Amino acid sequence: MKPVPSVPLAMQTYPETEMRQRATHFFDLMQQRHSTRDFADKPVPLEVIQKCLETAGRAPSGANQQPWHFVVVTDPTIKHKIRLAAEEEERTFYAERASEEWLEALAPLGTDADKSFIDWAGCLIVIFAQSYGLADTGGHIKHYYVQESVGIATGFLIAALHNAGLACLTHTPSPMGFLGEILQRPKNERAYINLVVGYPAEDAQVPAHAFHKKSLEQFVTIL
Ligand code: IYR
Question: Is the full-model pTM beyond 0.70?
Fold first, then answer.
């Protein structure tokens, strides 16, 4: 390592028994997380959303470039505009764009082009990936590992929201160009995910299919 300005890592470590407890506790929390489309018609506390976004902003990223931007939409008029534009794309997706194979894979989820929940869910957090940075002089700054970085930040955000007691849905209409247009984002940004966030409805349901998780042995190799 070359000498660079550095500061001490202030990170808590634990004895092994406590590590086990903490790992299990976090698993128990995250095991309860599921995407739902059943949101309560109730505003979400903006302060909580902002704190969860601060958590997302702590994600590691390529060269620490933090190539993301998050737009929080609570305004009912803008949400409705997004809902209508999303439903238009989804109708084409289900009727024409999606292959038979794709529709078959989606069948256990019971999804369709109806995204009415966008109207009443507490807020949308539209996540944008900055394909490149914009220098003050107008030039382009190359960004590295953009998709990976934004994916990790999104994971942090989803975990933070769940920890705070908010449900979310990773909605990915395809194509998503309408999100940048409606939200008037600059040309270096591409919509990554429309995260629908809110309190779950009292009778919120999750497709049973979502509980079919691979066992550790199926997805982990220890050498
Ligand atoms: N974007 C569509 C279809 C869809 C695609 C995948 I992959 C999903 O995991 C779920 C849905 C929709 O939101 O209905």
Answer: yes
